[in-house]
């Protein structure tokens, strides 16, 4: 689900950033966020593996 839609639907309501990171690190799909300058600001383990970065 798109993160924006999830926030609007209240799916993440009450979850801490730590909780969300723990969940995203356990999924097999790659997940990353970029800032306004298109720099990667966060990624999960699957994205790191896909990009050839150490986990």
Folded structure, characterized:
The chain is of the alpha+beta class and 55 residues long. It has one domain (3-50). It contains three helices and two strands; from the N terminus they run H-H-E-E-H. It has helices at residues 3-9, 17-26, 45-50; strands spanning 32-34, 40-43. A two-stranded antiparallel ribbon has the order 1-2. The longest helix has 10 residues, at 17-26. It is flat and about 30 Å long. The termini are far apart.
Number of strand elements: 2
Largest sheet: 2 strands, antiparallel
Strand order of the largest sheet: 1-2
Share of helix among residues?
Answer: 40-55%
How do the SSEs run, as a string of H and E? HHEEH
Q: Enumerate the spans where pLDDT stays under 50 for 5 or more consecutive residues.
A: none
Mean pLDDT: 77
Strand content: 5-15%
Q: What is the total domain count?
A: 1
What is the helix tally?
3
Distance between the termini: 24 Å
Radius of gyration: 12 Å
How would the global form be characterised? Answer: flat
- Structural category is alpha+beta
